[in-house]
Amino acid sequence: MRSCGKETAPDIEIVIDRTVREAVERAARHAAVAPEVPVVLAAPPGESGAGFFVPEVAGFWVTDGTMIRVAPEPGADAGMITLYTLGTAVGLALFQRGAFVMHGASVAHRGQATLIVGQSGAGKSTLAARLGLAGCPILGDDTIALWPAEGGGRFLIHPAGTSFKLWGDALEAAGLATAARGAVARRVDKFYLDNPHQAEDRAYELSEVLVLKRGASGEPPRIEPLPLLEAVRAVTENVYRPQFAEVYGMQAEQFRRAAALASDIPVARLIRPWDHAATESVVDLLRAHLEIAGRGTGGGMAEKGMPARRGIA
User: Along the chain (313 residues), what's the average pLDDT of each consecutive run of 10 residues?
Assistant: First the structure.
């Protein structure tokens, strides 16, 4: 994997290695679990890295945040192997490199970043793709790496250059079915859609987090700031693969990061109906919120008189 838009040495190497299954089995024996259980396992003493096995797909082993080794199962769907490689395995590599990894989508505005999070199926990817089509530069989707900024309390996001993975009905509703590149996997009704507006390749400071929440049918979308404790809970609930911290005994550090983020960066709830018919009104709301005009960008809550909270160290 290379930095977006640059011909440089890869940050993470991905290789086929048939010995990975043995590494996962050794880790499973050390943890006293069955190797077929799809959980992330730390290496036993004397070895390095962590890995997991997905039945009928592949075994994966990640070391030092720089190497992902994959052992495909016979007859495995290549799409599923790619899905887990670029999802859980890359997320684990980013965690090993020191990133605070969130599950969401991120858009840029005025040189800063907004992170959109929510439960699976909440429409994060669909909303971000629609914002891209409306002229908002997109930083990434699904696995978002937050890097601590110098001085503490703030986080940076770099463009990932990833494609979107959208459900078939979402593509149809947006009129984008013909733009999709192909199915994610044989038995998954998701399709790849190229990033419609790639952000400039540089660091963007995270300025706000929006948490998607289901609203009543026909209810107009709105954005409501979250109290501090609810904000901490929302950030914590949307960490990507919380098990990574458990494997490395870093649960306390993970919570400290979540609390620091929620203390220093505005977190709000974006309430909107859970249907495709309402997507256009949600996009209009966010365009106004971010002050996007065509391919211009705008500011977030901190610039609208809603200061970041402080109080949790």
Answer: 56 94 94 83 94 95 97 96 95 96 93 91 85 89 91 84 83 82 88 88 94 88 95 96 94 94 94 84 89 42 43 38
**239: buried, middle or exposed (CB in 10 Å: 19+, 13-18, 0-12)?**
buried
Nearest to 253 by CA among 95, 67, 50, 114: 95
* SS3 call for 128: helix
Instruction: Name residue 31's amino acid.
Output: A
β-strand 58-63 against 67-72: which pairing, if any? antiparallel
Q: Which of 254, 260, 255, 237 is nearest to 312 (CA)?
A: 260
| 3-class secondary-structure state, position 234 | helix
Distance CA 256, CA 263 (A): 10
Among residues 263, 262, 246, the alpha carbon closest in space to that of 254 is found at 246
C-alpha 148/C-alpha 264 separation (Å) is 12
The token duo for 195 is 């990033």
Q: Are 103 and 239 spatial neighbours (Cβ–Cβ below 8 Å)? A: yes
CA distance 115 to 128: 10
